[in-house]
Amino acid sequence: MSRTAEVIRNTSESNVRVLIDLDGTGASSISTSVGFYDHMLTALSRHSLIDMTIQATGDTHIDGHHVVEDTAIALGQALLMALGDKAGITRFGEATVPLDEALASCVIDISGRGYAVCSGEPAQQAYARIGGSGVVYMGSMTRHVIESLASNAAMCIHMRVLAGRDAHHIVEAQYKALARALRTAVSLDPKILGIPSTKGAL
């Protein structure tokens, strides 16, 4: 069965199209008009092995907040749709990923209930402006992305920053840890028959 989904989300603040394949190879085509976010979503696709086509535009003349958050909402909805009834999935995934001095840990449970816990970011991370020319990515947005994914994909995500000084490195370690945990959680395990829950539903 194909585990693919397409979500189109149009609001007065943004226009987003997300197409994913959970059983891909990590191929991606990403364009959100926020350069650093494109970089992070490309890493998310590559290391989760989820193929992603993401196109987003919006009121970036204000800032990148709406495009970043709305893209995460649409991506979460696409993940939920592509997972279907969740039969045969591994369900749980965890990963700890370094990037030089930064270290991030992510644990995922595709539980059917949206919940996010983010901890450990240094106080200055929220005010970091990351990116070159064009629309910057604020360090505070990573928490918004994780919360939006968790809520809309109906999964529990715990993200902890264990170490880090450089704002770019911290965010990249977070996205890569998310990717690797997601890769395990959505993967199909041939030993699992039906839905991996004693309740019979997720």
Structure description:
The chain has 202 residues and is of the alpha+beta class. It contains 4 helices and 10 strands. The chain has helices at residues 35-48, 65-83, 141-153, 167-186; strands at residues 4-10, 14-21, 28-31, 51-58, 92-99, 102-109, 115-119, 129-130, 137-138, 156-163. It has a 4-stranded mixed beta sheet, covered by helices on one side. A 4-stranded mixed beta sheet has the order 5-6-10-7, covered by helices on one side. Strands 8-9 form a two-stranded antiparallel ribbon. Strand 3, helix 1 and strand 4 (51-58) form a beta-alpha-beta unit. It is globular and about 50 Å long.
The low-confidence runs, each spanning 5 or more residues with pLDDT under 50, are none
Mean pLDDT: 96
Element order, helices and strands?
A: EEEHEHEEEEEHEH
Distance between the termini: 18 Å
> Strand tally, please?
10
Widest beta sheet: strand line-up: 1-2-4-3
Structural class: alpha+beta
Shape: globular
Strand content: 25-35%
Largest sheet: 4 strands, mixed
State Rg: 16 Å
Number of helices: 4
* Percent helix: 25-40%
Helix and strand topology:
Blueprint: E1 4-10, E2 14-21, E3 28-31, H1 35-48, E4 51-58, H2 65-83, E5 92-99, E6 102-109, E7 115-119, E8 129-130, E9 137-138, H3 141-153, E10 156-163, H4 167-186
Parallel strand pairs: 3-4, 7-10
Antiparallel strand pairs: 1-2, 2-4, 5-6, 6-10, 8-9
Helix pairs in contact: 1-4, 2-3
